[in-house]
């Protein structure tokens, strides 16, 4: 029986954009529709890493078509992830809102290691490895992911700036020669050398290639009657034929799809470099890809098996967070958020409750660096650490909430803008931290209520006068300071003593 509705994943790669719509059939994707467009986004990056208008328009046209197909889907049933070109483009901040508007859904820009983890998740759900250690290599348009693992959680995830589009453009814009091909291999080996020692030390039982480059190499090798596996010897034969012909098109490879011709040689050079640098003896192609990992993770989130929750708990352990204090702050912050968000939808409240709770769980991790300005250290860690399950935007949001938990509120004015729920989330966490500065259990008096009056841009905290002034004078003094902080940015924070 189908427990969940149709789910849609959107994979915005540097080479192709894909929309996959699936039913959850007993935990496995039953594909309803799979749409792919060769957008070649990475080819639009100039030498200064700015995405040109032509490539942006190609992307927007594709996203608009995806958006049309996704009409009627709820936000919770669609997850769109963007990879390397979205990570490196310097003008992505201007392009991303346009892309989200065209698609009609939020787009998560995932970090390289998060992309690697999602790819591995897809492989682990589709490949029967029987406890064997896997090496997974995924050559994309702008980056290549290398993953090691034998259990659902990988032991090593790396993303290197090697791609079939970027290497094809960088080394093979003219006639392909032995010299240019070897230069591409050497450059790729130099990048892979950063991880080769550790990966070879760890070792693996099975090597798998995923996504378009591995698929096209395996297909061409098979069409050349050189077996069904990717080997260094077979790839060298392909390279020699390309060099002799001068380009891929003239080599006339059977099994190579027309949309892969322009980027095949760059991907081949990267794969040869990986084989040589890591001493890979042979590799099989696996159909699983990023979109599959995203699908399986969506199922996990719907089944309340959210990796982000596990990551937050692991970070608490790693940074020796006082769990009792984190729990106290979390509980009160959520109470305040619910007070403030009376007009929010259930979906909005659920969304923001998760982030306020995670921020509360992790608001003191910066203390492990230094207690002075610990909120700034916390914000830095949350923005820059590898946090499995969280996208870049999600980490930036956690970082923002952590930064706003104390200190001058003026620093938050520009970054929060007019987003009411962000202001609510910051204030909820900020007051919870303020109330629990003594790090002791405490019950607020009955009828304590935090309200927001939109017309006046006013926050009002209603609380018992005796409890505040007589029993907790330090909190009373801190709330006076808080009122002054909000006044500096033209907003009202008022304490109504009853």
Overall pLDDT, averaged? 92
General shape: elongated
Count of discrete domains: 3
CATH topology of the largest domain: Hypothetical protein af1432
Helix fraction by DSSP (H/I, runs of at least 4)? 40-55%
CATH architecture classification of the largest domain: Orthogonal Bundle
Could you describe the 3D structure shown?
- Helix content is 51%, strand content 15%.
- The chain folds into three domains: 7-110 and 293-298, Nucleotidyltransferase, domain 5, CATH 3.30.420.40; 128-287, Nucleotidyltransferase, domain 5; 306-497, Hypothetical protein af1432 (Orthogonal Bundle), CATH 1.10.3210.
- It has 20 helices and 13 strands.
- The chain has a five-stranded mixed beta sheet with strand order 3-2-1-4-5, with helices on both faces. A five-stranded mixed beta sheet has the order 8-7-6-9-10, with helices on both faces. The protein has a three-stranded mixed beta sheet with strand order 11-12-13.
- The protein has helices at 53-69, 84-88, 92-103, 112-126, 164-171, 178-202, 211-223, 232-245, 248-251, 261-278, 290-302, 307-318, 323-340, 346-362, 374-384, 392-403, 413-416, 420-435, 465-471, 473-487, and strands at 7-12, 17-25, 28-37, 78-82, 107-109, 134-139, 144-149, 156-160, 206-210, 284-286, 449-453, 458-463, 492-497.
- Helix 5 crosses helix 10 (261-278), helix 6 crosses helix 10 (261-278) and helix 15 packs antiparallel against helix 16 (392-403).
- It is an alpha/beta fold and 498 residues long.
